Amino acid sequence: MVTDEEQVSDELAVPARLDRRLRLAQVAPPIEPIPPRGYGGTERIVHELTRELARRGHEVVLFASGDSASPGRLIETVPLALRGQGFTGDASPWFSATLLQVLRYQADFDVIHSHLDFHSVLLGRVAATPVVGTFHGRLDTPFAASILRDRPAELVAISHGQAAQQPDLPWAAVVHNGLSLRHMPFRERPEGSLAFVGRIMPEKGILDAIEVARLSGRTLRVAAKEPWLANEVAYYEDVFKPALARADVELLGELGPADRDALLASSYATLMPSTWPEPFGLTAIESLACGTPVIARRVGGLAEIVREGVDGFLGDDAPALAAAIDGVAGLDRAAIRASVLERFSAERMADGYEQVYAGILAARQPIAGRLAR
After folding, report:
1. φ, ψ of residue 43 in degrees (nearest 5)
2. Which domains does the chain have, with CATH numbers?
3. pTM of the prediction?
4. pLDDT in tens, 331-353
């Protein structure tokens, strides 16, 4: 029996190869700077991709907040990233401003690569320049199918699990996220505590992480994004903080990259008990790059990262995840690290996107040729 994920995977071959350097726009959300100072998964991917494409000789222009850094030209979409300013209002006007800024310069590019999720669909409908849109968030929302009808751009998913949420969409490709991971610290003999890195929200399963720590009798160290929006603050105060009494939990706040990496490397295992269809899971590949196994719920793209019994264990609820911790001692941390460095590198991610760019340009070339005649 063919699963939805296998069917989606079979339809994603991109035979074209890139044979020239391109003028590329990389379009980031206005919420966090590039690279982010702390939390910011999408922004970290934009940073890695922009840097690797520039290293390969492409002319890359980054559309992002004014406090961002780029290996090439930076075009400001907002003076300062919104979260850093403490902005908690409706961000949609700033996304619209970003789209308008991109459209002003669209003639300068061979391809526009948008990381604005559903806003990429609008950009693809109005831009004359080819648009590639990568989805970094969830696609199981009620409005998703309606917005994605009549694909206006080359749309890319970051996992087969994510793509399978919209199986009727003719995805251009699935391109797994990648990071520069060789610098990640490695410890053969970790401490006995567990790690949780992410947002303090229901979909990230923080209450289950606390329960796993309680059932396993281990300390849980939490490195989490500072609550920002009203619903995040309410959940933090009304649900999360009262739950802390259930187990031994150490709150570390929102860590910078070096401290976050050190936390992952020193932990016995990293918990990812997400209750939503996790589109990918950057924390998973970072943890594995440190040699630290991942204990995760069997959802979304996590099953494409964590090989059961090799990189960690997958389960369906807190008791199953807690029971899996007994098997962590038998895993080879050095082998875990070696595998993830090859499977989820920034170079491999850039290879995938170069194929997508080549495919979209090859598809448009015959049209351009006819118009020229």
Report:
1. -65, -35
2. 4-178+345-363 (3.40.50.2000), 194-343 (3.40.50.2000)
3. 0.89
4. 999 999 999 999 999 999 999 99
